[in-house]
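Box 3.1 A note on notation
Throughout this textbook, protein chains are presented in two layers. The first layer is the amino acid sequence; the second is a token string describing backbone geometry. Keep the layers aligned when reading.
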Amino acid sequence: MSRTITFGTDGWRAKIAEEYTFDNVRRCAQGFAGYLKTIYKRDQLLRGVVVGGDRRFNSEHFAAAAAEVLAANDIPVHFCGGGVPTPVISFSVKVCKALGAINITASHNPPTDNGFKVRDENGGAIAPEGLKQIEELIPEHLSSIKRITFDDGVAQGKIMQFNADEEYIEQIKSLVNLEPIKQAGFKVLIDPMWGNGAGWFSRLLGRGKTRVIEIHSERNPIFPEMSRPEPIPPNVDAGLKKAKEIGADVVIFTDGDADRIGIGDENGQFIDQLRVYGLLALYLLEVRDQRGAVVKTLSTTSMLEKLGKLYNVPVHEVGVGFKYVAPKMMEADAIIGGEESGGYAFRGHVPERDGILAGLFFLDFMCKTKLKPSQLLARLFEKVGPHCYDRIDITIEPQHRERILAYLKNHLPQKVAGLDVMNTNFSDGFKFILSDGNWLLIRFSGTEPLVRIYSEASSKEQVRKILEAGRKLVQ
């Protein structure tokens, strides 16, 4: 009997060669095939599924293993191979009019891991109830898996090589005018963190006055100079140092699968993802004059509520993960949806995080306003006041999870770091809304043995005090 596979906030992830094996990837693919068969008729299944992956160890071969299972279940496969950005895979679903996608990626996880993401017919994350159905349909025994060889699938016309790069580029051009950015004369440092974002900004912004310099652009599954391809300190330190050396106007980091971004300013200072979310929302509302709902996770900035009041747009708060963000974006026709980890999705595209498009929007913000990143941040703070943010992660033993949860439930504080608890939200973790608009969130990771502690406040010192109070609660 095989181990139970559980989908977290964004699919299943595990250590390569321990739980993450070819057999378990095939089990997941069989579960996804079974799920599709329960909601689509036989002739609808012929629309097929997009399958691709990232640059991690063996990702293209794990993707091929998933394709073999779908093909054996008479579900055609549009096969992208490896090294494909997550937003391109999601957009490919629309191009192919497919039923969904399988994406082999562990995103920003450590190099020891790989993962298995699924997407729906809109290219967005599947809602929690759908993920639960997939989990229940994952077979325990290998004998229940249907499979043909990759070569046989190609020969039978069930696996078709597919590349949506050009269609994706045309989509990007329809959403942002690239020519002014090309001619702006910026010096842009791109750090794709050895991942799928490599080459894309050079490709989109080349042959103009703007210079695009890339580092960490080769395929290297051990991710040198960083612990993981996650665009937060200290993983961004090498990129920020390089930016200061060359005098870059801005640094854009994309994570391992290019669905998230981080930003460094003209002084080589990191702009955290909550501030980036505030800046992107301000850009859409003020520069692009868009109106519509904003969707945020509960770990994301309260600056959005302030912008919502200023521009008279609704702001919806949901649980952590795009399995909550994407459905709400579709329901509310939101102009933007995002989360604390640096993933942002936009109306008119796909309900999926897109680090490439987010980076281009940031450059367009600079171009349209003729302001440097630090000046854009000052402009945001003029509207919403100063906001600082940080997060700490505490590794826990899995067997201690329930004990810590029980303790937190039975010891809810009335004050945190000397501030009164004004309100609480326990929909996805323990969020304490404090006086003066500060907040603390304690949340268990859905994919790793971690407790994440988040805080946003008006000063770095206040953030530090709130985080330490959160750490004491957990420990």
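The two ends are 36 Å apart (CA to CA). The chain is about 35% helix and 20% strand.
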